[in-house]
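note to self: dont lose this again. the chain is below, predicted strucutre after it. 520 aa total, dont forget to put it in the shared folder this time
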Amino acid sequence: MDFLWILVAFLCGFGVKQLGMPPLVGYLAAGFGLHAAGVEPAESLETLANMGITLMLFTIGLKINVKALIKPEVWASSALHTGLWVGLLIAIISMAGWLGLSHYFDVPLHTQALIGFALSFSSTVCVVKMLEEASELKVRHGKLALGILIIQDIVAVVFLVASTGKVPSYWALALLGLWLLKPVLGHVLNRAGHGELLSLAGFFLALGGAELFYLVDMKGDLGALIIGMLLASHAKASELYKSLMSFKDLFLIGFFLSIGFTALPTLDMALTGAILMALLVVKLLLFFFLLLAFKVSGRSSFLTALALTNYSEFGLIVAHLSVGNGWMSQDWLVIIALVMSVSFILSSFMYRKAHHYYAIHKDSINQFERDGAHQQFDRPVGAEVLVLGMGRVGKGAYSALQPEYGEKVWGIESDPERVQKLKQQGFSIVLGDSDDMEFWQRVCTQNIRLVMLALPSQQEILSTLDMLKMANYQGKVATVARYEDEREQLLALGVDVVFNYYAEVGAGFAAESQHLLLAD
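---
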């Protein structure tokens, strides 16, 4: 049976990939298809799904700056959104029930509140996957979205404690001393090296943190998140994150499949779900205007709100507990599973074009900004060559060109912390998002002769090329690629030079070493 769901998941994921859709759409379809065919989920599927979520939260922790969580635009906007959303849902469900739009809306007040609460959360799994694909975990809107998701996870823990009556053990107070273990955990990572032992160390820390929290009657996933946050400042945090990415993504397939095994909807449930899907517009607007109220720029508010416009897997947990306690009917568990699944698909599609939508509608979006909120850009004065993405590849390209072209070479980086570090090291660099239309309009002048895209994600490269085209850039473009099919795609789009660093690193290595032969 394990082979069956692996086979179906692969075929569905492969099929939707050929249609240009995210593979997770196929995994969701595979789960519902297997359920409809009468296939029973294996126990290993649930284990795989749980491990995927635990690893995901651990890797989120590796990217989190704790200071970001105490900013009012994070905790206050999250809290206000939950309160306003629940109030609105109560009013809307009451009105829908009174109008007779669906008999499912004819429920008592406490059930209305629980439905609103279940649908107030955004999906950590879906949002993080979208941000990872776009390499936006460390940009402004990515950090805002992650911060809000973590605040929601904290609220989730409080709800679980209150609804189950399961109070954390007194030993939970001892968890406050976890920070004392930070040097020990860091030493473990240093001694683990760079191979499979580092990945195993990641599994040990993630699952160990979860088990530790389970022992004191707390949500285990929160433990994985906190252990990850303790290690976020470690020098090997980024390497550990990369070593776990493939495992995490593989295990999360089990999570997407398991959603389909939750329940199958009827036509009446689908109609009710369609109304709830329409309310995602309300969710988007609530996040957008709340973030604007805390002086977040129009672009960051729009992108953050769009990323968070989906329903969460936590809604299933709320519904499951509510059904068990007799607070709502079993039918609502099915409806929430349905709208959550569809919202994943819709969110994945919409966010892929998020920067394009902003570029087209930026004037309408930015008219709601508060004074002083609009993002300002430093200009790369005298630049003729721009290197976008100052990671290892970008820094290498900058360092190779700078001796000959001097101040005509500038780096562009979207991570503020990396910008500060590189400035201290003497790099000519400015903060900016490569897929921000306004950045190109304000910075890109006729003097720019060459744009080099040393970006880690094909999706981000494609989005940047779209922005360059919309900004009417006339110079040359060079990019990197990981695989030959990606290289061919970029060349077909008109990129002048595409460097496949996996295939061509050998040639570069030989060129660097050739002088050794001449010395003899």
